[in-house]
Amino acid sequence: MVDNRYATALVISCVLSVLATVYLSVAVGTQHWYQYTSPPVRGEANISELRSLHDEFMEGEFDEKTYSDTLFRLNGTIGLWWRCVLVPSHTHWYKESGMYNLISSHKLSHHGFPQNNLLIQSMVLSGHDLCFFLFLNFSSVSDPKMVMKCVSFTLTQQFTPKYKEPGNHNSGEDMLRTYLWRCQFLLPLISLGLVVLAGLIGFCACLCHSLTPTLGIGMLHLLAGLCTLATVCCYLAGMDLLHRVSVLPDKVDGSLGWSLYLALISSPLHMMAAALLVWAARSHSQNYYRMTAYRVA
Amino acid sequence: MPGFSSGGLGGEVGGPASSSPRRFHPSRYVPVSAATTFLVASTTLFFCFTCPWLSEHVSSVVPIYNAVVFLFTLANFCMATFMDPGVFPRAEEDEDKEDDFRAPLYKTVDIKGIQVRMKWCSSCRFYRPPRCSHCSVCDNCVEDFDHHCPWVNNCIGRRNYRHFFLFLLSLTIHIMGVFGFGLLYVLHHQHQLDRVHSAVTMATMCVAGLFFIPVAGLTGFHMVLVARGRTTNEQVTGKFRGGVNPFTNGCLRNISHVLCSAQAPRYVGRWRGKQTAEVQPPFLRPPLSEAQLEAKVLDNGIQNDCHSTRSKSSLEQMESQSADAEPPPPPKPELRYPGLPRADTEESSLLSDGPPTPSMYKYRPAYSSPQMNHTALTHPNKMIRGDSLDSPSILQSSCQPSYRSEPSTLDGGSIIGVGVHTGGRERGEGPGGTSGTGGGVSGGISGYSLGGRSYTSYPSSLVLSTGGSLSSSMRSAHTHHNTLGTLQSEGTTDTSYKSLANQTPRNGSLSYDSLLTPSESPEFESAGYTSPFLSAQMAQQREGQLLQGSASFSSPHRAYLRAISPPLPTPPPHTAHPETPHLLHQDTRHPHLRASSSRPLPPVSEQPSPSSPRACSPDPPVSPPPRGPSLGQSLSYTREAGLQHKARSTHLFSLTLSPHLHPYPPPPPPPPPFPADFPIRSTSRPGLANHSTSKPGGGVKKVTGVGGTTYEISV
Predict the structure, then answer these.
(1) In percent, how much of chain B has pLDDT > 90?
(2) B651-664 pLDDT tens trace
(3) pLDDT, position B295
(4) Is B48 in Cβ contact with A8 (below 8 Å)?
(5) Which of residues 633 through 662 in chain B touch A, CB cutoff 8 A?
(6) B9 vs A205: CB contact, 8 Å cut-off?
């Protein structure tokens, strides 16, 4: 009976550890830590501007202000290693421009009939209705075909310093934001490393039929949980500081993503696994000591 | 990977924890792994993907409510899994060995007037209490056994049934909450079902729905059982189905008993009490109190003594202190030169006497006596100590030549010579005693040492008779000798033995060889008459015992008498002929020297209470005659002597006593401080004492009379 309960504790702690590790891996690998909700495209005047932002986002040089503005205005989502924007596909870009040409041509043709005033007025009204109908159809059709374009942060870009005013390299380096950013992408790697190390030690302990490392494995899991919790805190602090430095445009809303929640919930799972391991190690040693003393007596 | 690692970990737990290695079954841990995975994974995914939207659009209380319910469920799950269900410890194999064969299968007991059967459990070796059942998976008898739950991998018994029941209730509520809120989310996002949040929420709802039906059914079943006051085991086996259940107390009381009763005690943890009991240190008060009592009695006895005896004891104390210090180097080379010829003469005399015969006779009683075998078995460590003691005896035996050379210096007859004489006695007595403890050669050596001692006594008498002016102490010694002479004149048999004692020491001394030559033949002729005298000694010993019973002495006097009487019967009668007169001669002097040696301790010592127990403690150990255990005890005593100065003084005290008892084992030191050993030794001592008292010995009476007479004279 005694060994059965301790074995159960070890099994459950193993399950919790695996769950937490999977959650943390998924969180680190995805980009849904923070997401922005941008207003829909309005007016033909903004299309070219957004298009240029998109082109610069995809192929331009790395700059915090550039990619931040793009994320704000194109339904961007940002993670630890990825930043993504939600844009219409290329065919939709072309169709919108085609519609614009059609409207232009229609106006031009309208100016070609100066002799008949009554005929001219009736043509103008029908032309407007036709243009509106076409635009509405194109708008409704284009919604389902929005695609997500992602760009990854390279290691050098991760270590690039942050400036007090994004875009202005002469405003001085913001040490707090720089180190918060570095911590938030290094700590989860440390946490995963600790869990892998604990797993290796556990595996070796299985081969050697020894329970001595159980306490150490519990401590490693506790450290992993603390590192994960620190990661989440650093990320939230960093985003808050970013929004203070770069003011969000009008009608742009930001919210936490599900990756952040996964990382947040993997921390208590690690701590629960650590608690079970420590309990099993301590209780088992105590019981063994009693049995030994009793047998000797 | 996780399955393999968990299996290995389980194997680790099984190996060292249990005394008998059990077979590891990895399949037992699959249900608990599945339960944990589904519970934790579905709940955490629900919190990550569904609760953010609910907290924004429905209410911020939703995630808090779900978190509280989930934590309560998890806590009860852990308690049900890791709590001792109420396991009864197994009976030990020695405890009920007879009952195991003769025990009937069932015993009937009355509970509220209803007959309930108790079944004999062959695995645990006891009758199971009512509602107790043996779980084959855990291999233990569990109190109020409900069932063995594979989902928590533990038995559900009296102690953890409450937590299991609450776990079922909270799990049902949690599943309903997750399913309901998930459904709410999906209904509000019908147009976005392809998104990640909707997909995860629907998966969570499927898992919750799958588990809801069996969990709700099980919860309902246990609600009925709790209301009726039954266990699953009773329900399944059909107990008390037709009749009345003696364990039910009504619906409300049953529910309150399950949920609100006090936690049942744990039976497996009772080892703690025994462990603490064993660690307790031994008590030191009883020996102190005994020591104080003995000190008071000794003080009373010493105050009554004469002033001359005090001065004499002070001289002995000074000599003993000087002996403690390192001896001066100059006397050693002088003593070595005259000692050589004496050793040669000893060797020739030993060969002429024929030593192998007494050794063979002495070994027989040691092996044949059952008590000695018992002591040897119970104290194996003492045998080892006895072996290690051989080397110090060899070292001490080398001091004999120095003792032999001292009588020549006494011939001067000067006052300085008298001082050296008294010092020589103490130094020489030690090697004599240690040689007595040796192997087969002890008989011969002891005879010659006796001769040497008697030779020393005669020169003192000659000096007394020839000297013109004598000190008061010398006169008192002379008076003691006169009293001894009067004692010797009593009784016909006593006179015959005394005459033999007077003649044999002369034979030992070389200077009187020419004088003793014609008297050798009558000694050999008288050897034939030993057997009737031995029978007379037995009768005298019986009279001595009666005298001991009737006489009212103080406790220290009785201790001395008891210490003196046992060593007499140790030598066998066949080999006792040449030694018997020596023993008698020793006994006449023994009480006097003991009294004189014990007197100096109280007035000289600065702390009477601690020194008196050390002085008195060596007396009782004298009683055990077997050599092995006594040697071991003496070895431990010598170790203690090296630690403290007071111990050294007691060591010298034992050395002074040992020459008188040199044919017998030396007095062992006080027993070691282990409290467990006290009862064993105390049991062995009275047995040995009875054995020694039952043996024949004529000296008991004389010793008693001599001791009594000596004390009367001193008073």
Answers:
(1) 13
(2) 333 333 334 333 43
(3) 58
(4) no
(5) none
(6) yes
